[in-house]
Amino acid sequence: MPRRSRSRSRSRDRRSSRQGDSRERSRVKHGASHRSSSREKRRKRSLSTDGRQQQHGRRREPSLEKRGDRRGHVSPRQTADTGEYPQRRPPIAAAAERARQQQHQQTSHYGPAGTVEEEAEGEKPKPKPVDAANFGLSGALAKDAGTGNVYKGIVLKWTEPADARPPTRKWRLYVFKGEAIAQTLYVHRQSAYLIGRERKIADIPVDHPSCSKQHAVLQFRLKETVNEAKMETVRTVRPYVLDLESTNGTWLNKERIEAGRYVELMEGDCLRFGNSTREYVLLHDKSQGVVS
């Protein structure tokens, strides 16, 4: 091998070795500086943390062991004596305990001096007395004992009897004013007809000022008669009139009837209410001279 080529190879080897040494020195230098800067950052961070804790009145407690070794560390959930975790209560038992505490708080009451007096354990609170059911009369119906019921918000002065029945005959009231027939009223569609000035409830309204708001009642009732010849009971529905204690009374065939008492009516009877001159003649469809 020529001398010139050997010298070139030696110089190349020395140059490469020098470059490798410089790279190694640079790597070591930069790694050391990096480690030193990391340690410096951690030191500054710890100093700043200690300063903030001292500023707020708190003192940082040193750790028990090193960071990597946690054998001496005691968890907040561990007991200081044994270092074991406490046994966790089941959720059902915890809920029962909370319910018992709430019930205990509800049963406590305040004493006279603002202190809380709790009932002794084992003593059950006394239940509040419950009023027994009262099935007695309230008095509302007693006020209407003589009247019976309320219709359209107005207390009626009478109530239908138990033997009230709709008529089997087609009864009519012919209203005469003087010698002329002013009106014909068909009174066979229901068992009772109220006569008075209260048009809200009256079946046969009268406008004369001498008549009362509830003046009289035309009532149909079931009547039983005994036929001695045939030895049988005959039942018929008959018309009655009842004066409701009106001021000027009810007149039957020009005679005033007793108030509060049913009076049986016959075919052809004439009724007059108060001081009105109108006459109400009672007939039916089979009466003589009546046109059906």
UniProtKB/TrEMBL annotation:
Region Disordered, annotated ranges: 1-128
Biased composition regions of type Low complexity, renumbered to the chain: 90-115
Biased composition annotated in UniProt, kind: Basic residues? 1-13
According to the entry, every stretch annotated as the FHA domain falls at: 193-257
Q: Where is the composition biased (Basic and acidic residues)?
A: 14-25, 60-72
Q: What is this protein called?
A: Smad nuclear interacting protein-like protein
**UniProt cross-references to PANTHER family, sorted A to Z:** NUCLEAR INHIBITOR OF PROTEIN PHOSPHATASE-1 (PTHR23308)
